[in-house]
Amino acid sequence: MEIVQLTFRSRPGGNQEAGIDRLQGYLAALHKNGQIVGDSPTAKIRGGYLVVVGVPRGDALHARHGNKWVRRAAARLVDGGLCLPEVRLLGHEPETPSPCRCRRRSALILFTNFLSDESAVRCDACFRPVPLFTLPCTSDAGNYLDVLSWQSAYQAVDTLWIGSGVGEQYAHRQLSDVRSSLSRDGRELARLIEDKTRRPVYYYLMKHYGLSDPHERRRRCPSCKRTWILAKPLHGIFDFRCDRCRLLSNVAFDVRITVD
After folding, report:
1. Residue range(s) of every CATH 3.30.70.100 domain in the chain
2. H helix runs in the chain, sequence order
3. At residue 107, does pLDDT exceed 90?
4. Is the pTM above the cut of 0.85?
5. What is the pLDDT of residue 229?
6. What class has domain 2-92?
7. What crossing angle do the helices spanning 181-197 and 145-163 adopt, rounded to 10°?
């Protein structure tokens, strides 16, 4: 993920109240289109506003990536008394993955966690995030709000799980059970992305609790009950894959024995 500074200069005679409202609308449109990720702190500066945002890659804010809502928000921004932003690329955010640059992707993975601001769509080959704006739109509104909404819900549940307090058992069921509401919504979203991209899209079932490492490796796909253990873990995370059901999972973390 890259960090970018946006400077919005006020136009002579502009309405400040209308300007900040339309600035927030412009940032919201960029977010829903997958062009900016995470929070976007805004500061009032002399002659305008300064915003620092994360973007999936350096060219994310180029006009060619904007959808109709971004273009409409940009026009409203100008009407509200602000200039289009001056963009300054500050650099790569440490400890975040670079975006997928594979020329062709054979499959995709729907994957996120409570720490991630990046796209929840990953490349099956390199396991790097795929910028949403490079994919066909997934929602009827012509953006990616459905992907972002699922990602937000998943991260909220994952935060409960990591907190290891109130809601821990509930969170584990949501993350690990193929029948949970979170998993059902995620698999439905994965099928939608698969229809749009014409690429297989896999859904990850996290698992922490198990009886033993050998017992775990004998378990079968929770959907079709077929054998799904992989000969070698995929990306060092996934020990199981069912191509029929588009599911991935891991040997339970609390019993996992790592073999070098």
Report:
1. 2-92
2. 16-32, 68-79, 145-163, 168-176, 181-197, 213-218
3. yes
4. yes
5. 97
6. alpha beta
7. 140
